[in-house]
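Letters spell out the chain; backbone shape is given numerically. Take this protein:
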Amino acid sequence: MSALEARGLACSRGGTRLFRDVSFALVPGEWIAVRGPNGSGKTTLLRCAAGLTRPESGDVLWDGRDARDDPGPFRAQLLYAGHAAGIKDDLTAMENLREALTLRAAAPTGDALRGALAQVGLDRHRHLPARRLSAGQRRRIGLARLALDPAALWALDEPLTALDDAGQAIFSSLLARHLARGGLALVATHHEVTPAPTRELRICP
C-alpha cells in the first residue's frame, strides 16, 4: 500500500512565484482536489508531483523515499494525464487505447479493450479514426484508459473537460472504484466531483 507525500514545494514561472511551501500527503483510498484560478499553477504543481517538472525547492516522496532518487518504482505506479487529451488523430479509438496501455507496459486483451470502450460508451465507435470523434468522445478514450491501467496513483489535469453529464458520471464511477481498491489520486479540477475529495488544495496567486 503506497503513499505520496510532498514537502515544501515551490515553483516560479518567468520570474513570478506560482506557489511556495506546498505540502500534502496521500494514503491509499484518498484523493486531493487541486483548485485555483487559471494561471495559478495547478498544472505546474501536478507536474512537480509527477516528477515531470523539477520544483525550485521541496521534495516528493513515494513510500517514504525521494521519488527522484529511484524514479523507476514511482513511475511504474503513476498514471499522468495532462490537460490535452493526448489522442492521435490517425488511430482509431481502439488503437489509441491499446497504444497508451502498451506504453505503460500493460497488455490487455482485445476483449478487455472493447469492454472498457463499451463501458465509456464508445463500443460502436471503436474502429473510427479519432479525428472523426467529438471532443467529448476523445476524452472518453482517456476514461477507458483509467478503467484498465493498473497504476496506483492518478495525477489528472482537468479530466472532466469536454465531458457531458454522462461522461462525468462515468469518471466519478471510475474514481470511486479506484479509491475502493486502495488507489490514490491528485486531480486538478474546476468541477465538483463525486466522491467528494478527501481534501482540497487551493493554489492562490
Remarks:
- The chain has a mean pLDDT of 94.
- The CA atoms of residues 102 and 128 lie 20 Å apart.
- The chain has six helices and nine strands.
